[in-house]
Amino acid sequence: MQYLDAKGAHLPILGLGTWQLTGRECSRIVEQAIGLGYRHFDTAQMYGNEREVGDGIRASGLKREELFVVTKVSPDNLAPKLLARSVRDSIAALRLGELDLLLLHWPNKGIPLAETIDALVGVKRDGLVRNIGVSNYTVALIEEASRLSGDRLVCNQFEYHPYLDQAKLLAACRAHGMAAVAYSPIAKGSTKSDSVLTRIGNAHGKTGAQVSLRWLIQQGVGAIPRTSRLERLAENIAIFDFALTEAQMQEIARLARPGGRLVDWAWSPRWD
Q1: pLDDT digit string (tens) for 233-269?
Q2: What percentage of the chain exceeds 90 in pLDDT?
């Protein structure tokens, strides 16, 4: 496994996303993922599955310090008192002790960012979390949040795959020494059947989805694909035994298109 190092955080570059995984299925897939070598697990208050993620981790028998566990604060909990209380609730649900990384899931225009960042820095200062960061933040929001936090933010998690050009956001993350982690890295399954990705994959004995993930990690970007199937779990982690050529990297980048974004809600910020 490769790692992303950012301001003291040592983040496995490939992880398991758990959005829409619930109940016993969620616990089972987390436990199976650990058996396959996954060490980075991503959940969120909005997913309603923190307890199940924690159950799967404990069932694996792996030592807590060998894992990197991420959760995200709901945009409804960004007021200072709510944020601190919700983080304690997340820790209680996971039952894993201190969190490795806490992210603000989405910006909330109704709550001053300065207040939210102050509370985020506070839960780190109080020892509830080891590292702090953001998710779905634009270039402008990264600039402001970094300034307000005293440059303590280690990560921005955002949608990224071959159909969405995120060059500006990547540059902003790197300018502030932040790790970039991609959610929806296989574009909700679309990369599996893409003709360009499939052709490149055939040259390496890999699938289009594996090519998409490899394209991200060769840029130094983390990826957290979600799946509920054991065979997909095994496929997604089998991306460290081949490398894309520079020509292939550029060809994949040219797949980006207007309208390539898949995740866009009423509360989303104005994207770059």
Answers
A1: 999 999 999 999 999 999 999 999 999 999 999 989 9
A2: 99
**20 occurs within a structural domain:** yes
First CA to last CA distance, the chain: 31
The total domain count for the chain is 1
For the whole prediction, is pTM greater than 0.85? yes
Residue 272: inside a domain: no
Residue 269: inside a domain, yes or no?
A: no
CATH assignment at residue 156? 3.20.20.100
- Residue among 89, 75, 120, 72 nearest 224 (CA): 72
Q: Which of 59, 62, 61, 27 is nearest to 43 (CA)?
A: 27
Strand (E) or helix (H) holding 40: strand 40-42
Identified catalytic residue from 3, 38, 47, 137: 47
- CA-to-CA separations, 131 to 36, 80, 94, in angstroms, rounded: 26, 18, 17
Q: Please indicate whether residue 137 is annotated as part of the active site.
A: no
Q: How many residues does the chain have?
A: 272
pLDDT single digits (tens) 149-191: 999 999 999 999 999 999 999 999 999 999 999 999 999 999 9
Does residue 270 belong to any structural domain of this protein? Answer: no
**230 lies in which domain range?**
3-253
Residues 6+ apart with CB under 8 A from 34: 56, 57, 60, 62, 67
